[in-house]
Structure formats: structure tokens, C-alpha cells
Amino acid sequence: MSAVVELRAASKRYGRVEALRGVSLAIHPGEVVAMLGPNGAGKTTSINLMVGLRRATSGQARLFGLDPADRRARSRCGVMLQESGVPGMLTVREVVDLFRSYYGAPLPAARALGLAGLADRAPVRVARLSGGERQRLYLALAVCGNPEVLFLDEPTVGMDVAARRACLDAIGTLAREGKTVVLTTHYLEEADQVASRIVVIDHGVIVADAAPGAIKARVPSKRVRFRSAGALDASAFTGLPVERLELSGGEVRFLSSAPEAVLRELFGRGVPIEDLEVAGAALEEAFLSLTGDSAAP
Amino acid sequence: MTPGASPALASLLRMLAAQTRSELRVRWRIPAFSVTSLALPALFFTFFGLPFARTTDGDGVNVGAYMLASLGAYGVGSVMVFGFGIGVANERAQRLDVLARATPLPPALALAAKVLVALLFALVSLLLLIGYGIVAGGIRQPLAVWIAVVARLLAGSLPFIALGFWIGYAVGPHAAPAVANFVYLPLAFASGLFLPIGQLPGFVQRLAPYLPTYHLGQLAWSAVGARAEPVLVSLAWLAGYTAVFLALAVRAYARDQHRKFG
Predict the structure, then answer these.
(1) B223 CA to centre of own chain
(2) A90/B95 touch (CB, cutoff 8 Å), yes or no
(3) Are A101 and B9 a contacting pair at CB < 8 A?
């Protein structure tokens, strides 16, 4: 199966900053790929190369086997960017119709607005939209050309919980229709929810590329929290499978792949435990372990 | 559809039509632009032209028609310098060009839509001004004269489009209105578009023949029968200024594009 989107040993340098260092990545039809990474990891740069907004310093990007800036390639993709705008003086409906005119076989405007949850905001001027509504408008603009592949750079930024869920549902709907989706996100639970594949990127290189389940299996998957009346120090945990142990003022936090065994052992050692909480540690933790960012909470 | 299959492309003409319609709506809905560019020349004519609407100068030229030509030149230049200067600076600040660039819309087509809309605004402002002069001032000229004034001014607006683009790409949205005013108003005054050149200070009179607005004025003045330089000389000057402003605009544009898309 040939790739829809491809980076081939792509590097990007802004002055002295190396944003991307020889990234190779092939995305196939129907995949929903979430790109994860901290700020400045190279996610947005990757998207910009894939859609032809920026040029690789070395290596190359291909979209449908073409230069991404080629109109034939662009006519088959929809893009949602972080820092961009549309004319505030136009209404939602007018902007959607404008963008529909750029494509050969666009979706009906009502369908694009409906997918983005903006049907009732069609006559409103863009300048009057809230931040979350504006994000939804950008989603409507990304899908309105009925593209085969969608690039969504931080699609749910600025959305409230309900809007975020609606946006993820929309992405799910598009994925079921067979669209290829490439998205970046900081909300790692989002990636888990919508993606069939997660690409973790840090300091301009890919550090992990696997299905969400496989990524979770590689890292401590449970977060444990409790209070301890006794003075506890790290020596109480020697030999136990814990990571990211934090002890502060009687509060204990750590991650573990085997919390039951750890707790059994702690009880056995006579450690007083109160207010115990064990929760699934989703991709945040997976992500932090993979990028090795020990300074993060 | 499989990768490599030929996609459906939108018709460029349809794209241009939709883009032009949008530009027109945006311009129209910003009163600071639409009202000033459409009404200001007529307003100025009330002060500078109407009092002399029925007088005739030493060469037998109707002063009212002469002032309509002058303020028409002012108005066309201002639509271009302010429209593009402030418009482009604002669009850059809002990053409107970034999202559009990721769509199949060719950048040249977006530019063409802007120029079309600016020409349309310039045309309407000229028609309003001339209509006002005819109705309020009782100024009479053969239709062919008015058509010549309009056609020459629109043709002569090219260097001011380039000047507007240069300002729009060289400065930010806060500075653009000030820079456009600071550049354009002195040019218009010094070229005799408000007061006849003979009434300006001596050094300004000596400077005027080197200014682009002066040669735009000459194009219009000769159309109403006033004593003026040959049309080809005016056009040559305006072409020269177009080349200079365009070179500066392209340089500023390239810098902006490199920052965003490099």
C-alpha cells in the first residue's frame, strides 16, 4: 500500500535551531496518526512540511507522491493550523463557502458546519465567535473540501469539555469514512481515544511509533497516590518497580507497571497508607517516560 | 480514491469569483475603508472645488472639472495606498495568508482578487465624485472626457498598488495607517491635487514634477483639457515608479514569506 503522506529523512533548521532532525515517516490511507511531543518537539514543523507550508532543509516531504505545494495534492487535503486566521468581517457560512470554492468536489456547507457543530452559528460574523467556536470553524474549513487526508494541528486547543468531545467524535466519524487523519495534540488522552497509531516526537526525532496499546505497554501504566503518617524516605521503595517517585510532606506519588505487588510489599514492610488512589496512567506518563523528561510533573 | 488518482480540481474562474466576492464583502464591511475611500474625495471637492465650480482659468479650462480631475487622482491613489497598505498589514498580523496558503487557492489568484476589488472601489469613488460634481456643481463636460478621466486614472493607479503593497509588507498593522498617511498625503498636496501647484511654496513647485502623484494628476488634467505634459511622458514616469515600488514590495514580500514559509 503506498503512502498518502511521507517524510523522507526530513530535517528542518530555523537559523541555528534544528526543529526536525532526519525524520522518516510514512502514513497510509485510513490511518489516524497522533503526533505527540512537548512544545518545540517538532510536531508543528512536521505538519508544516507535510502540507508544504515550509520546505525541508534537507530530505523531503511528499503528499500523494507529489510535492505538497502542488495544487493537485492540496486539493485532496484539509488543514487546520494553530496560528492562522480568517477574515473576521465574514460570517461563518461565507467563510465556509469561500473555502469550498477552492475544491473540486466539496461537501455541502451544511454538512461541514454540522460535523464541526456550528450549524446554528452559520450567520454569525467570525469576529464574534468565541475561541472554541473559532477552532470549530477551522475544523469545518479543514473538512469542507471533502479531503482524503486531514492535517489537524492541536485541533482541540481552546475548546471546553463538550466541544472537545464533539470534535473528537467528528474526527472519529471522518476516520470511519476512511479519511486519513494526522493530528498533533497535547491532550494525550485524546490521542488514545482517536488514534490508531501514535508517533512520539521529541527534540526533532521520533522516539516512539506504535499503536496506543503498544506504547502503553512499554511504560508504567498505573499512577499510585497515598498519604503516609510516618516519616517515609526513598529507601522504603528499594527494589520495587516504581518510577517517578515523589515524596513531599507525607504525600507519596509514583508510577508503576505492577501497583498490586508494590502495595503488597509496602504493607508487608509496615508502611502506613491512607487515602490510597490507584488510577490508570494514560499517555501523559507513557509520553514522559519515552521522552525522558524527568523535570515534568 | 487511491493515492495518485487524479483529484477533482476547482475551476480557477469560480475560485476567482468567490475570492473577489469575499474581498468585496470584507472591504465593504470595514467602514473605515469603504466610507473614507468612497466619500472623502467628494467631501474634499466640497471645500476645494465647489467654490470655483463655474469659474474658468486663463486657458479657458473649467476650474470645477480641473478639481474633479485632481481629487479623482487623489481618491484613486488613496484607495490603492490605504487599501493595500493597511489591508495587507492587517492580514499579515492576523495571519490570514497562512491558512489560505495551505489550501489549493493559488496565491496569484488571491492577489488578482484584491486588485480587482481595489479597482472596483476606485471606479465607484470616481463615479461618486464626478456625479457629485455634476449634480452639486453643475459641471458639464462631454461624456468622452469623463470616460478618459476614469480610464486614465485607473490605468495610472498601478504604481500606487505597488506602493501600498510595499507599505503593507514592510510595516506592521499599527504603523501602517500612519505610514500610509505620512507618505501619501504629502505626495498628494505637493503634487497640486488639493491646491493648484502655482499656490504652493517655490521648493515644492520645483519638487512636484518628480512625484508619482504629480504625473497621475497630469494624466487627469490633460483629459479635461488643461495644460499638461504629454500623456506618454506621464505614463513613462508612472511606469518607472511602478518598477521601483514593485521592486521594494517584492523584497519586503520575500522577507515576509521567508519568515512564514521558509
Answers:
(1) 18
(2) no
(3) no
